[in-house]
Known about the structure:
By secondary structure, the protein is mainly β. Helix content is 13%, strand content 43%. The protein has 6 helices and 23 strands. The chain has helices at 2-7, 51-54, 195-208, 225-230, 245-248, 278-285, and strands at 11-22, 27-40, 46-49, 59-63, 69-78, 83-88, 112-117, 125-139, 145-152, 164-166, 172-179, 190-194, 214-215, 218-219, 235-236, 239-240, 255-257, 260-262, 266-270, 273-274, 293-300, 303-310, 312-313. The strands form 6 sheets. It has a 6-stranded antiparallel barrel. A 6-stranded antiparallel β-barrel has the order 7-8-9-12-11-10. The chain is elongated, with a radius of gyration of 22 Å. Residues 25-32 have low confidence and may be disordered.
Amino acid sequence: MSIFRAAAPSTVFVTQLQVLIDQFQRTAAEVPAGSGTGFAWDDAGTIVTNFHVVEGARALTVTLSTQKTFPARVLGVEPRKDIAVIKIDVPPGTTKPIRFLDPQTALEVGQKTIAIGNPFGLDHTLTTGVISALGRQMVGVGGVTIRDMIQTDAAINPGNSGGPLLDSSGMLIGMNTMIFSQGGSSAGIGFAVPSRVIARIVPQLISKGHAEELGFGIEIDPIQRAERRLGLRGVLVLDVQKGTPAEAAGLHGLTQTPEGVALGDVVVGLGESPVNSYDDFYNALDERHAGEELDVKILRAGRVATTRVRLFAIR
């Protein structure tokens, strides 16, 4: 198949290594501890894979389609999108970058999908199917919902994670990320992070080591311990940073009173999106840009008010 021949050189195997210590021989050796798949971002050894493929790794190796293996290091990760970028030190021209679908091209339910990966530690394998659904939401390893995922019935098995999901012309439309299965094997329901998300996040990971995070000057608790304890829906403002749009907009955090700690504002909406949890808060800011203005709905003393803030990069 021409698509397989064209895409296979862009697909790599990613292996985690752990140190195995022999107490009797008093020796230590690195042995494989797990594997996944990845694909080349450029021609100089930059590789994209899933965060959960590299999570907690003591050491990593990347095996190219030529069967040459190289040590790899992590450049950056975004757990909330299950994306990681790793690097092998090779001369330019060693790796063949994957071809991306134009982000403006609309996907359609029913169109053909092709998944390439390294299931069960085997060589390159190919499975085919169709897009079963679009806009799916699944909770990722980062603890927040990954939205707008592609659902496919192409078999995605353990080891396919991080591999490319292609359309019928061999263009990347997503990165195979997870399966929906009780037993851990493919059940005909697989999910992929869309290529437009990858195209947005990966350059940030390469240049900064992390994905850009936007805010407007409030401190919050992503774990939402106080909200759960108090039964609050929304995101509690713990503090407001000086000189920020949040301060200019008059937002209030927790305050100390003679009777104890008094609650401040609770964010219940961002733009057109209701905010019931940190998950909603994170995804409402996702794909927005620094400098953009946004309406913030807050609950204060039992009443809902709206104020406008300007977003900025907080990291």
